[in-house]
Specification:
It contains 16 helices and nine strands. It is α/β, with parallel strands linked by helices. The strands form three sheets. A five-stranded parallel sheet has the order 2-5-8-1-9. A hairpin with an 8-residue loop joins β6 and β7. α13 crosses α14 and α15 packs antiparallel against α16. The model has no long low-confidence stretch (mean pLDDT 91). The protein binds adenosine-5'-triphosphate and magnesium ion. Magnesium ion binds next to α5. One of its GO terms (molecular function) is ATP binding. Pfam families: AAA_5. This is ATPase AAA.
């Protein structure tokens, strides 16, 4: 188990889930492994007021109302659609919920333009069909079909990217709750067991590519996840993810709190600039999400570990920030250049601290890329 590049939540937190299950005496919907309150506790972590014998770590950061609404939806007849900007933690929340409720978060279909009905229903093992004919044994169930048979949660990532055919097939699965297999003469219907539901995610920036049909919309409850703009929660997310990353790479390195502040501050500044921009050319292509902040810090940490002296410096952080955000040339570079001149430079004069090194590192990175 330890040599997985990235363990699914039910494996990573198996011990915590076992413990929660052992103390859980609340009523559980269907075949859920945990009661709704315990699912919420697993996702949002424990507080002293919960009076538990041990601490449960917070894994997803955001308003508890989103988590509660998601849990209630999954106990209802409808699917759950988590929608929001890129990097707002939708997939991570979906994984945590599936892990807590079903102990399986890996029954996932990825929505792309190439996703077909087979991917959400079933396909055939061709060599077995040739040898033995079509039967349940030669059928390959999709992750969604498997979730139906087991009465657990299936996931559909990036729902809006799939074509309308696929979306239509999903409508019938969500309303009839069975899949028929017309190729077979008998045993040709797979019924969903109680507990089956779907958590889908959709990126709000993708919308319009394939606008969801109103029939499908009615079968989902929408939970809109906003970009975290509260600096304190954002700092917590970044810290949580970074400590995990360091552990995974077995890196011993301290992230100085003032560098974390600089990272959060510069993202906040750049978001404010994007909000007041009047055209797309004046807006960074990046959504400036928390996930991207984590990416910048990860990049800086690895750079310092591989090529530096294992100390995270402001110059390196600036280089990683520019490198990650300058996707379009010249537009993004111009925006960053303007930010560096207009904001970082004066701040480095006024506030001092690590800002002068941040200023220098960013200048160099911009010059290299220009
Ligand atoms: N609110 C949050 N709580 C905890 N972690 C978060 C949060 N937001 C983002 N993250 C972290 O950011 C990373 C990206 O999140 P995730 O993949 O879930 O985003 P997403 O909303 O699904 O984005 P996309 O629309 O691009 O698929 C994950 O590693 C996740 O842990
Ligand atoms: Mg996602």
């Amino acid at each position: 188990m330890t040599d997985m590049l990235r363990a699914p939540a039910e494996v990573k937190y198996a011990e915590e889930l076992d413990w929660l299950e052992s103390i859980d005496d609340g009523p559980k919907p269907f075949s859920w492994r945990l009661s709704p309150k315990m699912v919420r506790l697993f996702v949002l972590g424990s507080e002293r007021a919960d009076g538990l014998d041990r601490e449960i770590s917070q894994k997803w950061f955001g308003d508890r109302s989103f988590v509660e609404r998601s849990i209630v939806t999954l106990a209802s007849d409808r699917g759950l659609l988590l929608i929001g900007d890129p990097g707002t933690g939708k997939s991570w929340l979906a994984e945590l919920l599936a892990a807590a409720i079903s102990r399986n978060s890996t029954l996932v279909v990825q929505g792309t333009a190439g996703t077909t009905e087979d991917h959400i229903k079933y396909s055939w093992n061709v060599s077995m069909v040739i040898a033995k004919g079509q039967s349940r044994a030669s059928m390959i169930p999709s992750p969604i079909m498997t979730a139906m048979e087991r009465g657990v949660i299936g996931r559909f990532e990036e729902l809006t990217r799939s074509t309308s055919d696929v979306q239509d097939a999903l409508i019938s699965i969500l309303s009839e709750k069975y899949i028929s297999i017309p190729e077979l003469d008998e045993d040709n219907i797979v019924f969903a067991q109680p507990g089956f539901s779907i958590i889908a995610t959709a990126n709000s920036r993708d919308r319009g590519v394939n606008d969801l049909s109103s029939a499908l919309k009615r079968r989902f409850n929408f939970v809109r996840i906003p970009v975290v703009t509260n600096k304190k929660s954002e700092a917590e997310i970044v810290r949580f993810r970074t400590s995990e990353l360091l552990r995974r790479h077995q890196i011993e390195l301290d992230v100085p709190p003032n560098l974390l502040d600089i990272l959060l501050q510069s993202f906040a500044d750049l978001r404010a600039a994007a909000a007041s921009a009047t055209s797309d050319d004046e807006k960074l292509e990046s959504a400036l999400s928390t996930a991207e902040q984590i990416g910048v810090l990860e990049d800086a940490i690895l750079h310092s570990t591989f090529f530096g002296d294992r100390t995270l410096r402001a110059e390196t952080l600036a280089g990683s920030l520019v490198g990650s955000l300058a996707r379009r040339s010249p537009e993004d570079l111009a925006i960053l250049n303007k930010y560096w001149h207009g904001v970082v430079e004066p701040r480095s004069k006024e506030d001092g601290g690590d800002w002068p090194q941040f200023l220098e590192g960013g200048r160099q990175a911009i010059a290299t890329l220009s």
